[in-house]
Specification:
Belongs to the UPP synthase family. Catalyzes the condensation of isopentenyl diphosphate (IPP) with allylic pyrophosphates generating different type of terpenoids. The chain is of the alpha/beta class. 42% of the residues lie in helices and 11% in strands. The protein has eight helices and six strands, in the order E-H-H-E-H-H-E-H-E-H-H-E-E-H. Strands 3-4-2-1-5-6 form a six-stranded parallel β-sheet. Helix 5 links the parallel strand 3 and strand 4. Helix 1 crosses helix 2. The longest helix has 22 residues. It starts with 18 loop residues before the first strand and ends in an 8-residue tail after the last helix. 33% of the residues are buried. The structure holds 3-methylbut-3-enyl trihydrogen diphosphate (IPE) (2 copies) and magnesium ion (MG). One 3-methylbut-3-enyl trihydrogen diphosphate (IPE) binds next to loops.
């Protein structure tokens, strides 16, 4: 029974944050502790993503953004990287098959050009096929880096200036936001990082300006809807001032 029901407004059951972001960390340690190869942790983590995404949809969260693969994760062994890419393919195949049932708008943030043509084709198909679903959107960050995203946006804006489409003096925070992968999406209200690491690891650097953070020692493959409820309950105890009083 979810603690936070869809679109509730009573003081006891406040509505969930509109946008939740998660650094899905701890897969490798989870597997190692069980004497399994790290890739088994990624497989378990991908199941947890499915479960948490569905749960977020069911309790009325509008946007879920997950960090699945960073611009720095290419440093890992070829074996681990290709296992992660394989799991992604598997996830996308299934998402395409179950789209009518799940009704999740799926979007992808990151420099996707480095991904394989096969994966790119699947991403493109998923993006287009899911465009009709409007209630809940999951953004999957792939080859994503917060700094890379900002550089990419700055370059696109500079390019627009050279063609006369934009003028440097017109640049505002809001205009700049429209050049980010997250264009048109509200900033995350709550950013969750499991696995005990207290750092941001290049995730949503621009968008996190006023996000509330929630850190837990639970490893991502052990993360449950009840853990998410705890994070949301902590979020509701925060006093967000946005620089005011
Ligand atoms: C997160 O889990 C998944 C990716 C970064 C792709 P990790 O693989 O980083 O797991 P730990 O941090 O080594 O336990
Ligand atoms: C962040 O986790 C990236 C993802 C979860 C996809 P990492 O495991 O790569 O981060 P660090 O190396 O602990 O900072
Ligand atoms: Mg990690």
């Amino acid at each position: 029974m979810p603690l936070f029901k869809k679109k509730t407004t009573s003081a006891a059951q406040l509505p969930p944050p509109r946008h939740i972001a998660i650094i899905m960390d701890g897969n490798g340690r989870w597997a190692t502790r069980k004497g399994l190869p790290r890739t088994a942790g990624h497989a378990a983590g991908s199941e947890v993503f499915r479960r948490i995404a569905t749960y977020c949809r069911d309790i009325g969260v509008e946007y879920l953004t997950v960090y699945a693969f960073s611009t720095e994760n290419w440093k890992r062994s070829e074996e681990e990287v290709s296992a992660i890419m394989g799991l992604l393919k598997q996830y996308l195949f299934e998402a395409l098959e179950k789209m009518e049932r799940d009704k999740i708008r799926l979007k992808f943030f990151g420099d996707l050009r480095r991904l394989s043509p096969e994966l790119l084709e699947l991403i493109d198909r998923t993006d287009k096929t899911s465009a009709k679903y409007q209630g809940f959107q999951a953004n999957i960050c792939l080859n994503y880096g917060g700094r890379d995203e900002i550089v990419h946006a700055a370059r696109a804006f500079a390019q627009a200036c050279t063609t006369g489409e934009a003028k440097p003096e017109d640049l505002t925070e809001s205009v700049f936001s429209d050049y980010l992968y997250s264009a048109g999406i509200p900033d995350p209200d709550l950013i969750i990082r499991p696995s005990g690491e207290i750092r941001i690891s290049n995730f949503l650097l621009w968008q996190s300006a006023y996000a509330e953070y929630y850190f837990t020692d639970v490893l991502w493959p052990d993360f449950t809807p009840a853990e998410l409820d705890k994070a949301i309950a902590a979020f509701h105890r925060r006093n967000r001032r946005f620089g005011g009083v």
